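WARN retry 2 of 3 for item q-0093 after timeout on previous attempt; input resubmitted unchanged.
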Amino acid sequence: MDHTTVTVDVHDLAQRVASPEPPVILDVRWRLGDDRGHDHFREGHIPGAVYVDLDTELAGPPDPAQGRHPLPDIETLQEAARRWGVHTDNTVVAYDDNGNQSAARAWWLLRWAGLHDVRLLDGGLRAWVEAGQDLSTGDETPGVPGTVTLHPGKLPTVDADGVAAFRGTLLDARAGERYRGETEPMDPRAGHVPGALSAPTADNLDATGRFLRPDDLRTRFASLGVDPATPTAVYCGSGVTAAHEIAALAIAGIDAALYPGSWSQWSSDPARPAVTGAEPA
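OK item q-0093 returned
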Protein backbone atom coordinates (compact mmCIF):
# COMPACT_ATOMS: atom_id res chain seq x y z
CA MET A 1 0.00 0.00 0.00
CA ASP A 2 1.23 3.50 -0.77
CA HIS A 3 0.33 6.86 0.76
CA THR A 4 -2.55 7.55 -1.62
CA THR A 5 -4.30 4.30 -0.70
CA VAL A 6 -4.08 4.88 3.07
CA THR A 7 -5.23 8.50 3.39
CA VAL A 8 -7.40 11.13 1.74
CA ASP A 9 -6.94 14.87 2.28
CA VAL A 10 -9.65 17.36 3.18
CA HIS A 11 -9.87 18.90 -0.29
CA ASP A 12 -10.36 15.53 -1.94
CA LEU A 13 -12.90 14.39 0.64
CA ALA A 14 -14.91 17.62 0.36
CA GLN A 15 -15.15 17.10 -3.40
CA ARG A 16 -16.24 13.49 -2.90
CA VAL A 17 -18.87 14.49 -0.32
CA ALA A 18 -20.39 16.89 -2.85
CA SER A 19 -20.35 14.34 -5.68
CA PRO A 20 -23.28 12.16 -6.84
CA GLU A 21 -21.61 9.12 -5.26
CA PRO A 22 -20.19 10.24 -1.91
CA PRO A 23 -18.10 7.84 0.17
CA VAL A 24 -19.31 6.20 3.35
CA ILE A 25 -17.84 8.32 6.15
CA LEU A 26 -17.26 6.80 9.57
CA ASP A 27 -16.77 8.92 12.69
CA VAL A 28 -14.77 6.79 15.13
CA ARG A 29 -14.28 9.13 18.06
CA TRP A 30 -12.95 7.17 21.03
CA ARG A 31 -10.27 7.73 23.65
CA LEU A 32 -9.21 5.91 26.78
CA GLY A 33 -11.09 7.47 29.66
CA ASP A 34 -13.65 9.27 27.46
CA ASP A 35 -16.87 7.39 26.77
CA ARG A 36 -18.66 10.38 25.23
CA GLY A 37 -17.73 9.71 21.61
CA HIS A 38 -21.35 9.63 20.46
CA ASP A 39 -22.07 12.89 22.28
CA HIS A 40 -19.10 14.52 20.58
CA PHE A 41 -20.41 13.25 17.24
CA ARG A 42 -23.83 14.80 17.84
CA GLU A 43 -22.21 18.12 18.71
CA GLY A 44 -20.53 18.30 15.30
CA HIS A 45 -19.40 15.91 12.57
CA ILE A 46 -18.61 15.78 8.87
CA PRO A 47 -21.88 15.95 6.91
CA GLY A 48 -23.13 12.47 6.05
CA ALA A 49 -20.87 10.69 8.54
CA VAL A 50 -22.26 7.92 10.74
CA TYR A 51 -21.04 7.30 14.26
CA VAL A 52 -19.15 4.07 14.91
CA ASP A 53 -18.83 2.72 18.45
CA LEU A 54 -15.35 1.27 18.75
CA ASP A 55 -16.08 -0.76 21.87
CA THR A 56 -19.17 -2.55 20.54
CA GLU A 57 -18.88 -2.42 16.73
CA LEU A 58 -15.13 -2.66 16.12
CA ALA A 59 -14.37 -5.17 18.89
CA GLY A 60 -15.77 -8.23 20.56
CA PRO A 61 -16.57 -8.34 24.28
CA PRO A 62 -13.50 -7.82 26.49
CA ASP A 63 -12.01 -11.01 27.87
CA PRO A 64 -8.70 -11.39 29.74
CA ALA A 65 -7.94 -14.44 27.59
CA GLN A 66 -8.44 -12.41 24.39
CA GLY A 67 -7.74 -8.82 25.39
CA ARG A 68 -9.71 -5.62 25.93
CA HIS A 69 -10.63 -5.22 22.25
CA PRO A 70 -10.57 -8.64 20.57
CA LEU A 71 -11.47 -8.78 16.91
CA PRO A 72 -15.25 -8.87 16.44
CA ASP A 73 -17.02 -11.85 14.92
CA ILE A 74 -17.18 -11.31 11.18
CA GLU A 75 -20.97 -11.58 11.29
CA THR A 76 -21.13 -8.80 13.90
CA LEU A 77 -18.79 -6.59 11.85
CA GLN A 78 -20.74 -7.27 8.66
CA GLU A 79 -24.03 -6.37 10.35
CA ALA A 80 -22.49 -3.11 11.59
CA ALA A 81 -21.00 -2.28 8.18
CA ARG A 82 -24.39 -2.78 6.53
CA ARG A 83 -25.95 -0.54 9.16
CA TRP A 84 -23.37 2.11 8.25
CA GLY A 85 -24.51 1.85 4.64
CA VAL A 86 -21.46 0.06 3.23
CA HIS A 87 -21.67 -1.71 -0.14
CA THR A 88 -18.84 -3.78 -1.60
CA ASP A 89 -17.80 -1.15 -4.14
CA ASN A 90 -17.95 1.85 -1.77
CA THR A 91 -15.06 4.04 -0.82
CA VAL A 92 -15.02 4.24 2.99
CA VAL A 93 -13.35 7.11 4.85
CA ALA A 94 -12.79 6.96 8.62
CA TYR A 95 -11.75 9.81 10.89
CA ASP A 96 -11.62 10.88 14.53
CA ASP A 97 -10.41 13.87 16.54
CA ASN A 98 -7.19 12.25 17.74
CA GLY A 99 -4.86 12.00 14.76
CA ASN A 100 -6.71 8.89 13.50
CA GLN A 101 -5.38 6.83 16.40
CA SER A 102 -8.84 5.28 16.90
CA ALA A 103 -10.16 5.61 13.33
CA ALA A 104 -7.27 3.42 12.17
CA ARG A 105 -9.01 0.50 13.89
CA ALA A 106 -11.90 0.82 11.41
CA TRP A 107 -9.44 1.25 8.53
CA TRP A 108 -7.56 -1.91 9.48
CA LEU A 109 -10.63 -4.01 10.32
CA LEU A 110 -12.46 -3.27 7.08
CA ARG A 111 -9.35 -4.02 5.03
CA TRP A 112 -8.81 -7.19 7.03
CA ALA A 113 -12.42 -8.05 6.18
CA GLY A 114 -11.86 -7.65 2.44
CA LEU A 115 -12.74 -4.05 1.53
CA HIS A 116 -10.19 -2.55 -0.84
CA ASP A 117 -10.84 1.20 -0.77
CA VAL A 118 -10.73 2.30 2.86
CA ARG A 119 -9.01 5.57 3.73
CA LEU A 120 -8.20 7.73 6.73
CA LEU A 121 -8.91 11.46 6.58
CA ASP A 122 -5.43 12.86 7.06
CA GLY A 123 -5.52 15.23 9.99
CA GLY A 124 -8.99 14.04 11.01
CA LEU A 125 -11.77 16.33 12.16
CA ARG A 126 -9.29 19.07 13.06
CA ALA A 127 -8.10 19.32 9.47
CA TRP A 128 -11.71 19.44 8.23
CA VAL A 129 -12.62 22.31 10.58
CA GLU A 130 -9.40 24.25 9.95
CA ALA A 131 -10.11 24.07 6.22
CA GLY A 132 -13.39 25.91 6.83
CA GLN A 133 -15.63 22.97 5.98
CA ASP A 134 -19.13 22.73 7.44
CA LEU A 135 -20.21 20.43 10.27
CA SER A 136 -23.56 18.76 10.85
CA THR A 137 -25.12 18.13 14.26
CA GLY A 138 -27.39 15.44 15.66
CA ASP A 139 -27.51 11.84 14.54
CA GLU A 140 -27.21 10.48 10.99
CA THR A 141 -28.82 7.33 9.60
CA PRO A 142 -27.91 6.01 6.15
CA GLY A 143 -30.88 6.20 3.80
CA VAL A 144 -30.25 2.75 2.34
CA PRO A 145 -28.75 -0.13 4.36
CA GLY A 146 -25.57 -1.60 2.95
CA THR A 147 -25.26 -4.99 1.30
CA VAL A 148 -21.54 -5.65 1.81
CA THR A 149 -20.35 -9.20 2.44
CA LEU A 150 -17.18 -9.37 4.49
CA HIS A 151 -14.48 -12.06 4.43
CA PRO A 152 -11.95 -12.11 7.29
CA GLY A 153 -8.22 -12.66 7.12
CA LYS A 154 -7.20 -10.36 4.26
CA LEU A 155 -4.53 -8.69 6.42
CA PRO A 156 -2.01 -10.63 8.53
CA THR A 157 -2.35 -11.17 12.27
CA VAL A 158 -0.26 -12.94 14.88
CA ASP A 159 -1.41 -14.48 18.16
CA ALA A 160 0.34 -14.60 21.55
CA ASP A 161 2.24 -17.80 20.78
CA GLY A 162 3.29 -16.34 17.45
CA VAL A 163 4.55 -13.21 19.19
CA ALA A 164 6.51 -15.32 21.68
CA ALA A 165 8.24 -17.10 18.81
CA PHE A 166 8.45 -14.08 16.47
CA ARG A 167 11.74 -13.80 14.62
CA GLY A 168 11.14 -10.46 12.93
CA THR A 169 10.82 -6.91 14.30
CA LEU A 170 8.18 -6.50 17.02
CA LEU A 171 7.00 -2.93 17.64
CA ASP A 172 5.21 -1.69 20.77
CA ALA A 173 3.02 1.27 19.73
CA ARG A 174 2.13 2.44 23.26
CA ALA A 175 3.52 5.56 24.91
CA GLY A 176 7.09 5.19 26.09
CA GLU A 177 6.24 5.29 29.79
CA ARG A 178 3.92 2.30 29.40
CA TYR A 179 6.55 0.40 27.38
CA ARG A 180 9.13 1.04 30.09
CA GLY A 181 6.68 -0.04 32.81
CA GLU A 182 6.69 3.30 34.61
CA THR A 183 2.89 3.37 34.51
CA GLU A 184 0.11 1.00 33.54
CA PRO A 185 -3.35 2.55 33.72
CA MET A 186 -5.35 -0.28 32.14
CA ASP A 187 -3.75 -3.71 32.15
CA PRO A 188 -2.76 -6.26 34.83
CA ARG A 189 1.01 -5.82 34.65
CA ALA A 190 3.42 -3.11 33.56
CA GLY A 191 6.20 -3.53 31.01
CA HIS A 192 6.51 -4.92 27.50
CA VAL A 193 6.86 -8.14 25.54
CA PRO A 194 10.46 -9.38 25.59
CA GLY A 195 12.28 -8.26 22.47
CA ALA A 196 9.76 -5.58 21.50
CA LEU A 197 11.00 -2.16 20.40
CA SER A 198 9.35 1.04 21.62
CA ALA A 199 7.67 2.87 18.72
CA PRO A 200 5.03 5.24 20.13
CA THR A 201 2.17 5.81 17.72
CA ALA A 202 2.10 9.55 18.36
CA ASP A 203 5.51 9.84 16.68
CA ASN A 204 3.89 8.93 13.34
CA LEU A 205 2.19 12.34 13.30
CA ASP A 206 3.23 15.94 12.81
CA ALA A 207 2.09 18.85 14.94
CA THR A 208 -1.19 19.14 12.98
CA GLY A 209 -2.16 15.51 13.56
CA ARG A 210 -1.33 14.48 9.99
CA PHE A 211 0.87 11.52 9.13
CA LEU A 212 4.51 12.32 8.50
CA ARG A 213 5.59 12.20 4.86
CA PRO A 214 6.43 8.74 3.51
CA ASP A 215 10.17 9.46 3.44
CA ASP A 216 10.11 10.68 7.04
CA LEU A 217 8.20 7.59 8.14
CA ARG A 218 10.67 5.35 6.32
CA THR A 219 13.51 7.14 8.12
CA ARG A 220 11.74 6.76 11.46
CA PHE A 221 11.15 3.05 11.09
CA ALA A 222 14.61 2.41 9.69
CA SER A 223 16.08 4.10 12.78
CA LEU A 224 14.14 1.58 14.88
CA GLY A 225 15.62 -1.30 12.95
CA VAL A 226 12.62 -2.07 10.76
CA ASP A 227 13.71 -3.76 7.54
CA PRO A 228 11.09 -4.09 4.76
CA ALA A 229 12.63 -7.47 3.92
CA THR A 230 12.08 -8.80 7.47
CA PRO A 231 8.67 -9.60 8.99
CA THR A 232 7.25 -6.85 11.22
CA ALA A 233 4.47 -7.16 13.81
CA VAL A 234 2.86 -4.50 15.97
CA TYR A 235 0.99 -4.48 19.28
CA CYS A 236 -0.26 -1.82 21.68
CA GLY A 237 -2.55 -1.97 24.71
CA SER A 238 -5.53 -3.61 23.05
CA GLY A 239 -4.98 -3.62 19.29
CA VAL A 240 -6.34 -0.13 18.55
CA THR A 241 -3.38 2.22 18.18
CA ALA A 242 -1.33 -0.65 16.77
CA ALA A 243 -3.58 -0.36 13.70
CA HIS A 244 -2.42 3.26 13.39
CA GLU A 245 1.19 2.05 13.42
CA ILE A 246 0.34 -0.40 10.66
CA ALA A 247 -1.18 2.45 8.64
CA ALA A 248 2.00 4.49 9.11
CA LEU A 249 4.12 1.51 8.09
CA ALA A 250 1.93 1.08 5.00
CA ILE A 251 2.50 4.72 4.06
CA ALA A 252 6.22 3.98 4.38
CA GLY A 253 5.81 0.98 2.07
CA ILE A 254 6.20 -1.66 4.80
CA ASP A 255 3.72 -4.45 5.47
CA ALA A 256 3.11 -5.49 9.07
CA ALA A 257 1.00 -7.95 11.05
CA LEU A 258 -1.26 -6.96 13.95
CA TYR A 259 -1.23 -8.72 17.32
CA PRO A 260 -4.91 -8.11 18.19
CA GLY A 261 -4.76 -9.25 21.82
CA SER A 262 -1.79 -6.97 22.46
CA TRP A 263 -0.54 -6.15 25.95
CA SER A 264 -3.99 -6.53 27.52
CA GLN A 265 -4.00 -10.22 26.57
CA TRP A 266 -0.30 -10.85 27.11
CA SER A 267 -0.17 -9.28 30.58
CA SER A 268 -3.27 -11.21 31.71
CA ASP A 269 -1.37 -14.50 31.40
CA PRO A 270 1.07 -14.89 34.32
CA ALA A 271 3.02 -17.44 32.28
CA ARG A 272 4.01 -14.72 29.78
CA PRO A 273 7.14 -12.80 30.78
CA ALA A 274 7.16 -9.00 31.07
CA VAL A 275 10.19 -6.74 30.70
CA THR A 276 10.50 -3.26 32.26
CA GLY A 277 12.94 -0.50 31.37
CA ALA A 278 14.00 1.10 28.12
CA GLU A 279 15.69 -1.95 26.60
CA PRO A 280 13.83 -4.58 24.52
CA ALA A 281 14.92 -7.49 26.69
